[in-house]
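Before relying on records like the one below, remember that each one covers exactly one chain. Contacts with other chains, cofactors or solvent are not represented anywhere in the record.
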Amino acid sequence: MDISMPVMDGIEATRIIREQMPHIKVIALPFTTTTSRPMR
């Protein structure tokens, strides 16, 4: 989940998942991207 999703950010979505489904484990994986093409 992205921190900047359009309707609900990942932090809010994680909070709701943890409240409604406490048996589900939420795993955080940091993710960054790079591009091989220079921006024009």
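The radius of gyration is 14 Å.
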